[in-house]
Design goal:
heterodimer; A: alpha+beta; 9-stranded mixed β-sheet; B: mainly alpha; 6 helices; about 60% helix; about 5% strand
C-alpha cells in the first residue's frame, strides 16, 4: 500500500517536473556559438535557424501564415471547385485588398520581401523566424518594408515614428515559445492600428484581467495565445473567417470544456489529455476546477450547446477596452488641407472619425454583438468576382448556417460596414492601389481614384472600365475572444425576451422572444370575453333579483 | 327549501385546491416564460414552472387513482338528458329565479353541462398540457431533439389560454348556488347547500 503511494507520488512529481522543463525549453539559444556572430541581414539568421531546425522551413511553407491562402473546394458558392483563397486574394472593407499594396500589407507577413506578385514562396531563407520567436521585444518589422525590418534607421511617415534596424545577434540568441506580444505585434494591430479590425483581439489582451478575458486574464487562466492556438509542426490551429472559408483546423471550447461544459469538469485533468493538447494545465492550476453541480438549469444550459455557440453567451460585449472601427466610408476620402495634406477630424475622445486619406469612420466601444447562424463555412468575394449592385449591402464574406441546419450555431459577430468603390460596368469591387510613391497611381500619394483603380486592377490582372461607383458592403467578423466567466456571461433574459438580443435572428422558436400573435390575440379575446360575459351575466342577475325582491 | 349535504370528501377538496393553486402558479410563471411580463425573471420562471408542473402531474396521478378506486369517475359520463334545460337555465331561467333543472346530490354532483365541461377538461385539456409540457421539458434539457419547439409551444399556449378562460367562468359559476358563496364554502368545508324541491 505504502509503496504504491510513494510510487504514484514519484510519478506525479516526475510528470510535473517534465512539464516544467518542457515549458522552459530544452535548449538555451544564447549558448550556441552559431548565433553569437554578426548578422548583416535577417535572411542570414533564418539560414542559421534552419541548419538545426531543418524541417521547419518545409513545415512553415505549408501554413496559411506563410501562404496567406489555403486550397479549398468547400467554399460556399463554389463547392467542388478547387481554389486558393485567403488573405492574399480576398476582398475586405478596410483597406480592401492586398494586391498592389504589398509592401505595406506584407509588413505583417512572416517573411521577407513579398513586395509584389513575384515573391518566391519556395525560398526558405525568406522565412521570418524572429517575429514569432524572439523574446526581447526589440525586433520590429518596418511598416512598409514588405516584411523586412528597417535596414537603416528610417522614419515611417504613416505614424511619424523612427524604426531602427534590429540587433540580430541579440534577438537570434533570445528565441523561444511565442509570447502574447509575438502574436499581438500583428494580430492586435490588424487594419493599421490597435483594435481597428477585430473587435475582440487587440492590445488589451496583452495583459488583461479575467474580467476582460477569463482565459488570458493574469488573475484568471493566465493563458498565452499559443496555449489554446496549439501548433502541429508550425501549423497553428484556429482561424478567422474574415479570411478563412473552410470548417477546418478550427479551435473549439469543447476541446477542453467538453460538450457538456455546464455539468462536466474540464477534461484537462488527465495527464494523457494534457500531452495530446500540448497545454500545460499545471501552470495555471486549472486542474483544480471542480465539477459543476448537475442542476436542472445547468442541464438546460448544456442542451443549448446544440444550437448556441459558447461565445454567444460568454462574450457579453466586444471592444470592451479599445475602440474598434465599425464603419468606413471610402467615398468621403480626399479632403486635403492647404498644404495638400489629408484633413483629419477627431471626436471628443480623440478618435479619428475622418481622415482625408481614408474617408469617414464610425467607431464602437463596449458594443453589443450582432448574432447570426454560422456553421464554420464562409463564402468570400475574391478579386474579380462580380457583385449584384441592386442587392445592397453587398456581403463580402457571407457566413453560412440556418436554424436547425447541421452544425449551425448562433454566433456573436462584429459586423463591419462601409462604402467602397466598384466598377459600374464590370460590377467588380475595385482593388485600389492605395500605397505607393507619387506617380505610381497610389491614392495616398496621387489622390486620384481613377489612377488608383487603374493601377490596382492592372496589378490584379483585371479589367477596369474607368467608371467608378460607390456601394455599401458588409463583412462578418465572428467574435471568439473576450470570453467571460459564468457570472459575467449573458443571462437568460438577454435572449429570452421580446426585446431579445436575438430580436432580428431568423430562428425556429425562441421561448420568451417568439409568440404566435393571432393565438395571443384570440387567447386574450377569449379571456376578456369570458370576463365581460360573466360580468354582464352577473349584473343582469343582480338587477333582476333586486326587482323581484321589491 | 335549502338543504346542507356532505358533497365533497376530504381528498376531493384537497385535490381541488391544490390543483387550483398549482394551475394559478403555472399560469403566472408560464406566461412569463411566454414573454408576457417579467416577475421572477426568465430563469426562475422556467425553474418554478418545471417544479409546479411535476407537482401537478403527481397530483393528477393521485386524482386518477382516487377517481377509479372510488368510482367517482362515473360522475363525468356525459348525459344529454336535460342538457338543453341546463343551457336554457343559465341563459334565461337564472334571471327569473327559476329553480335549477337538475338536482345536485352527492351521487350526482354535476349537471349535464358540467359533465361535458369537466370531461373535456380531463380528457383533452389536461392530457394536452401534460404531454406538450413534458415534451418541452425534455427538449429543453433531455433526450428529445426537435427542429423546433414551435408547435409544442403553440399547443401549450393554446391550452393555457383555454384554462384561463375556463377559470374565469368556473369561478363565476360558483356564485350560482342558493347563496353567492354556497359553493365556494362547500369546497372548503365539504358541506354544500342545495335546493331541494318541496314535496
Amino acid at each position: 500500500m505504502k509503496k504504491n503511494f510513494f510510487l504514484t507520488m514519484a510519478l506525479v512529481g516526475m510528470t510535473f517536473c517534465a512539464s516544467t522543463t518542457a515549458l522552459a525549453g530544452t535548449a538555451d539559444h544564447s549558448k550556441f556559438p552559431e548565433l553569437n556572430k554578426k548578422f548583416n541581414k535577417p535572411e542570414d539568421v533564418t539560414r542559421e535557424c534552419l541548419k538545426c531546425h531543418n524541417l521547419a522551413g518545409k513545415d512553415i511553407m505549408k501554413t496559411s501564415h506563410w501562404l496567406w491562402s489555403r486550397k479549398t473546394d468547400k467554399m460556399p458558392g463554389r463547392q467542388g471547385q478547387m481554389i486558393e483563397a485567403g488573405k492574399k486574394n480576398i476582398i475586405n472593407n478596410f483597406c480592401i485588398a492586398l494586391t498592389s499594396n504589398e509592401p505595406r500589407c506584407t509588413s505583417c507577413h512572416i517573411g521577407y520581401g513579398w513586395k509584389d506578385r513575384n515573391f518566391d514562396f519556395t525560398d526558405e531563407s525568406k522565412i521570418d523566424c524572429l517575429v514569432c520567436h524572439e523574446q526581447t521585444g526589440t525586433y520590429k518589422k518596418f511598416p512598409a518594408g514588405a516584411g523586412y525590418p528597417a535596414p537603416v534607421r528610417t522614419l515611417f511617415p504613416g505614424n511619424n515614428q523612427w524604426y531602427d534596424p534590429p540587433d540580430y545577434t541579440l534577438v537570434a540568441r533570445n528565441v523561444g515559445r511565442p509570447k502574447r506580444s509575438n502574436c499581438g505585434v500583428c494580430h492586435f494591430y490588424g487594419g493599421g492600428g490597435d483594435a481597428v479590425k477585430h473587435g475582440a483581439l487587440d492590445s488589451a489582451l496583452g495583459k488583461p484581467v479575467k474580467d476582460v478575458d477569463v482565459h488570458m486574464g493574469t488573475d484568471g487562466g493566465n493563458m498565452v495565445c499559443v496555449d489554446c492556438h496549439v501548433a502541429d509542426r508550425h501549423d497553428i490551429k484556429g482561424q478567422l473567417y474574415s479570411v478563412s472559408s473552410d470548417n477546418l483546423d478550427r479551435l473549439s471550447c469543447e476541446r477542453c470544456h467538453t460538450a457538456k461544459p455546464h455539468t462536466q469538469k474540464l477534461f484537462v485533468d488527465s495527464f494523457e489529455a494534457k500531452k495530446e493538447m500540448g497545454y500545460d494545465i499545471f501552470k495555471n492550476k486549472l486542474y483544480e476546477r471542480k465539477k459543476p453541480d448537475e442542476t436542472f438549469i445547468n442541464r438546460i444550459l448544456d442542451k443549448h450547446i446544440d444550437r448556441i455557440s459558447c461565445q454567444a453567451c460568454h462574450i457579453n460585449l466586444y471592444s470592451t477596452q479599445k475602440t474598434t472601427k465599425i464603419w468606413w466610408d471610402w467615398s468621403k476620402a480626399g479632403e486635403l488641407n492647404a498644404e495638400g495634406k489629408p484633413v483629419k477630424k477627431k471626436d471628443k475622445d480623440g478618435n479619428i472619425i475622418y481622415d482625408g486619406q481614408k474617408g469617414e469612420f464610425r467607431l464602437a466601444k463596449n458594443a453589443i454583438p450582432e448574432y447570426r447562424w454560422f456553421n464554420g463555412e464562409v463564402g468570400h468575394l475574391l478579386e474579380g468576382d462580380k457583385i449584384d449592385p441592386s442587392n445592397v449591402p453587398v456581403i463580402i464574406n457571407e457566413a453560412s448556417g440556418a436554424c436547425g441546419a447541421k452544425d449551425s450555431k448562433v454566433w456573436p459577430f462584429k459586423i463591419m460596414r462601409g462604402i467602397q468603390p466598384y466598377d459600374t460596368e464590370t460590377n467588380m469591387l475595385i482593388i485600389p492601389k492605395l500605397f505607393g510613391k507619387k506617380g505610381s497611381g497610389a491614392y495616398w500619394s496621387d489622390w486620384d481614384w481613377q489612377k488608383a483603380s487603374e493601377a490596382g486592377m492592372k496589378a490584379a490582372g483585371l479589367p477596369f472600365s474607368g467608371k467608378i461607383g460607390w456601394i455599401e458592403t458588409e463583412m462578418n467578423w465572428p467574435l471568439t475572444h473576450l470570453v467571460l466567466e459564468k457570472k459575467k456571461a449573458l443571462s437568460c433574459n438577454d435572449c429570452h425576451s421580446r426585446e431579445s438580443r436575438l430580436k432580428n435572428l431568423e430562428a425556429c422558436w425562441i421561448p420568451g422572444r417568439d409568440r404566435n400573435l393571432p393565438l395571443d390575440i384570440l387567447g386574450m379575446l377569449a379571456f376578456f370575453g369570458a370576463m365581460a360575459g360573466v360580468s354582464v351575466h352577473g349584473l343582469v342577475r343582480y338587477r333582476k333579483s333586486g326587482k323581484q325582491e321589491e | 327549501m335549502i338543504k346542507k349535504i356532505y358533497m365533497y370528501k376530504r381528498f376531493e377538496r384537497f385535490w381541488h385546491w391544490a390543483q387550483a393553486l398549482l394551475i394559478f402558479f403555472l399560469a403566472l410563471t408560464g406566461f412569463e416564460v411566454h414573454g408576457s411580463y417579467e416577475i421572477f425573471g426568465f430563469k426562475n420562471a422556467v425553474v418554478l414552472h418545471m417544479y409546479a408542473g411535476f407537482m401537478l402531474i403527481i397530483l393528477i396521478a393521485f386524482a386518477i387513482f382516487w377517481h377509479f378506486t372510488t368510482g367517482e369517475w362515473r360522475q363525468y359520463i356525459p348525459k344529454t338528458d336535460k342538457l338543453r334545460d341546463q343551457v336554457r337555465f343559465y341563459l334565461v331561467g337564472i334571471f327569473k329565479n327559476e329553480p335549477h333543472p337538475v338536482e345536485k346530490t352527492a351521487e350526482v354532483k354535476l349537471n349535464p353541462l358540467q359533465r361535458l365541461t369537466y370531461l373535456g377538461y380531463k380528457i383533452l385539456i389536461i392530457p394536452v398540457m401534460v404531454t406538450t409540457g413534458l415534451v418541452y421539458y425534455y427538449v429543453a434539457h433531455g433526450g428529445i431533439h426537435l427542429q423546433s419547439v414551435k408547435w409544442i409551444a403553440i399547443l401549450h399556449t393554446l391550452g393555457a389560454f383555454g384554462l384561463l378562460s375556463f377559470t374565469v367562468i368556473h369561478v363565476y359559476m360558483t356564485t350560482t348556488g342558493p347563496r353567492l358563496t354556497s359553493h365556494i364554502k362547500a369546497m372548503f368545508t365539504g358541506y354544500d347547500e342545495v335546493e331541494v324541491k318541496d314535496k
